[in-house]
Structure formats: C-alpha cells, structure tokens
Write a structure and sequence with these properties.
Length: about 475
C-alpha cells in the first residue's frame, strides 16, 4: 500500500457511532452484526471513488473505543472476529485497502493488566506495565495508587511501551491483525506521545510481516518530519492544513492556507515528498459543515482538499453536509448513527442533521467529481506545488510533474472573479487550458500571462487543452 499511497482516497468510519452502538459495553451481550452491515455501504464508497478506508477503534473496549479492553477481539457491540474478516474481504474485493485504529499509548481500566493491578496492588505482576504507578497516593478514580492517564484522563491508563512484555503484547496484536484479518495498515492514536524508538521498532516489525504495511501517525502539533520518515511512519495527520482549509474561507483570508502550503510543499517546503493525510473534519473535531460560515464554500473547500498535496480523506456523512459539534464535553454529535433509508437509497441514508441549506446530492456529486479528477491527473497526485497568485478571496496554484500540469484557481467571493497569474509565471508550453469541471471553459495563456474567470464560491481545475 505504501508505494501507491498518493493515489489513495480514504473514507473515515467511526464504527461505534456510525452503527449506533450502545454508549457502554456491558461485556455480556451477544455480538451484534454491525460490522457485517457495513458491507452494504461499499457500493456507495466505490461510487465516490474511495479506494481506502480508515476504520476507527473496533476492538473490545469499555466505552468510546479508545479505552481498549482486548486487542485480540472485536468489540461485541460491533460484531466478532469472523465479521471483521468478512468485512475486510469485502473491502478488498472492491479494491479498497483497510487501515485500522491502533491505540497503543494507553488502555482502558477494564484491560486485564490494569484490572489485575487494581485487584492485587503491589503484588500485581503488571504494575510495571503502566507509567507513573505510585502507591503513596490515591488516584482520582479512587484507587489505592495513582498512575499516568493520557492527557489527564484517568479512564485511559498510560502504558509503558518501553517494557518488553507490553511491547510483546502490542506487537503480537499487530501480527494477529495482519495474519487473521489481512489489514493493510494502522493509524497510530496519540502518536505524538509514543516514544520514537517504539515507532521505529513497530515499523520494522510490521513491515517484516507485510512490506507495504502503512503506518500513519496521529499528530496535532510539531514538525511532522519527526514522525513521517524512513524507518518510522509513512504519513502524519496534517492538522495545520486542516485548520487553514476552513478558516481561510471563514476569514476571507486565503493568505493563511497559502502560507501553510508554501511552508509545507513549495520549492523549499519542509514536507516536500511526504504524503501527509489531509482532511476537513474527523471524529475529534467539529464537522466542517458546522464550522464553515457560508455553506456554499463547502464545494471549493473540498475541491482544495483533493487538489493540494496530500492523501485526502472524507469523514463518514460529511459528503452530504452532515453537521455536528462538541457539546458539554461530549463528542456524540460528531459520531452519529447513519441509517439506511428507502428515501435516499444509494446515499445509504442522509441523516436529518444535514444542513438544510446544502444540496446533499450536489455536494456528494462534487466530491465524486473531485476524486475522479485527482485519479485521472498525475500532477494532482504526484506533482510539486507552486503558488501562482493569492488575494484575500482568490487563490491559484500549479501542480507539475514529468510534463503534466494542473492549475487550480479558487474564488471565495459571492461574485465571479478574474484571477490573473503574475507575469513570469510559467503556464506551460501550450497556450490553452481547459477546466476539467466545465470542459466548455477554455482559457488562453498569452505569453506567460493567464487570466481565469472563476464563478462565485467555486474553483476551476485546469489542464492543458489541444490548441
């Protein structure tokens, strides 16, 4: 999977939410059939052009999935191990790679090792599995000892990933996932606080089992090169670009995202050659349809997502303008159930939380078109990045590789705008450019000067046209 990662288009599923599972695991109920039901969604994903899925935590946990109880068994609220095998086979049959969430920084309090520590205290054989265990103090959870919780959350007990037995258990899970389920990669939760030596060892181990196994690190802040590098991880979540995608539209300030793209991918950009994971929203942040001030901007925003450097991802339901915000400390609204309805048929059930001002089918169609154009244009997958023009409400750049070029011109204004590329900008060897979104629109490059009229709240994706 690694060698072709720039050709991937991910669909992100948070299964406990999407399937409408109970908020807490009772550890006694029989396994559901939720994972098997996801197979019915595959035709929709294929129609979008998706060729990879990132599925959020699905191994046995107490509540939200990131409080793992058992790395070797599927959460009964979702199904069982055979169901996951069937789901992965179905995705693979459709040409879709499968990446799972790996929560290795911490476990839930119901995990066998932590449960033993709670029961046996100082006599527990697992006291050294966890960081900061101190029997001179009580924990906020009422234990006779304290310990490190991830980011202060004591329902997430931090593992000592340098401990041999801990590492053996976690690496054993990776082997199990590859050999039993045939997965293609993992997304490492909270990778920013995992030791780099642990990540290096994990990369070496996993790629010894499957050479093209893909490792993506969840990192919010910092220099992504510390994680995305040879012998470590293949990709990193590009949170810097995520923020610029929506705030550049909201603030009428394309200088923000232009600055980030230059910093990351221009000629002297720090992330040149890295295939970073790009997204407009996910299970941890407010849905972009709830964040964006002008719903019409969703269309050019997703156009940017598919044309800037990176590996694009759509969070389930966002292709229809699904809304959702964190409220009262809860992420529930970000992770709603999507139910099939006869009314929407192929759309697999557009939920009522979609913004009524957004044409859900039009947005889905636009995303499908953006994905197709990216798949058909090598410059948009592999090309370098060069800014052509930027103003507060207009932005243009070019992607180029091996004789292939694509120009992207975006307009955030409510009025059509003419974007001029500065004299000296190399528009290519041929003089005519055709809009892949509107083939009837052709623009002539006079010398090195090109003027492109872009409709309101829209973009053009230009490729060379026949003279």
């Amino acid at each position: 999977m690694t060698s072709s990662i720039t050709s991937r288009f991910f669909y992100h599923i948070y299964p406990l939410g999407m399937c409408g599972c109970p908020a807490r695991n009772d550890f006694t109920s029989p396994a559901s059939n939720c994972l098997v039901s996801l197979i019915t969604r595959i035709p929709h994903l294929v129609s979008l052009g998706v060729n990879a899925v990132y599925i959020g935590p699905l191994f046995e946990s107490t509540a939200h999935g990131y409080d793992t109880v058992d790395y070797y068994h599927v959460d009964r609220r979702l199904g069982n191990n055979d169901d996951l095998k069937a789901l992965v086979r179905a995705f693979h049959s459709a040409g879709i790679a499968v990446v799972l969430d790996a929560v290795f920084n911490h476990t839930g309090r119901d995990f066998f090792a932590f449960r033993d520590l709670r029961e046996k205290g100082r006599d527990s054989a697992y006291r050294s599995w966890y960081r900061g265990v101190d029997f001179s103090k009580r924990s906020p959870s009422g234990d006779d000892f304290t310990y490190e919780g991830w980011s202060g959350h004591y329902d997430l007990a931090k593992l000592d990933t340098e401990h041999h037995a801990v590492r053996e258990h976690l690496f054993g899970a990776v082997r199990f996932w590859i050999e039993e389920f045939g997965i293609d990669g993992i997304r490492l939760d909270a990778a920013d606080v995992l030791p780099h030596e642990f990540l290096d060892a994990l990369a070496s181990f996993s790629k010894s089992l499957k050479p093209d196994f893909w490792l993506m690190a969840e990192v919010v802040h910092g220099d992504y090169r510390k994680w995305a590098r040879s012998g470590r991880c293949d990709s990193v979540t590009n949170y810097e670009l995520y923020k610029g995608l929506w705030s550049s539209f909201n603030d009428r300030n394309f200088f923000e995202i232009a600055w980030s793209l230059n910093r990351q991918f221009a000629h002297d950009g720090m992330y040149q050659g890295l295939a970073l994971y790009t997204f407009a929203d996910n299970h941890d942040v407010n849905r972009v349809a709830s964040v964006i001030k002008n719903q019409a901007h969703l269309f050019p925003l997703y156009g940017l997502l598919f044309t800037v450097p990176g590996v694009p991802s759509i969070y389930y339901g966002s292709e229809w303008g699904l809304r959702g915000e964190k409220k009262h400390g809860s992420d529930a609204e970000l992770r709603p159930a999507i139910r099939d309805t006869a009314e929407h048929g192929r759309l697999s059930g557009v939920p009522p939380a979609c913004d009524p001002t957004v044409d859900s089918k039009a947005l889905e169609g636009a995303i499908r078109n953006f994905a197709r154009i990216k798949a058909e244009n090598p410059a948009l997958r592999e090309g370098n990045y060069r800014q052509l023009n930027v103003t507060s409400e207009q932005f243009a750049f070019i992607r180029e590789c091996e004789g292939e070029s694509a120009i992207v011109a975006v307009n955030a204004s409510e009025r059509a705008a003419e974007i001029f590329f500065a004299p000296g900008a190399q528009c290519g060897t041929r003089g005519y450019w055709r809009d892949t979104l509107d083939p009837s629109a052709v623009f002539r490059c006079a010398g090195e000067r090109l003027a492109v009229t872009v409709p309101p709240s829209w973009l053009r994706i230009l490729v060379h046209a026949n003279d």
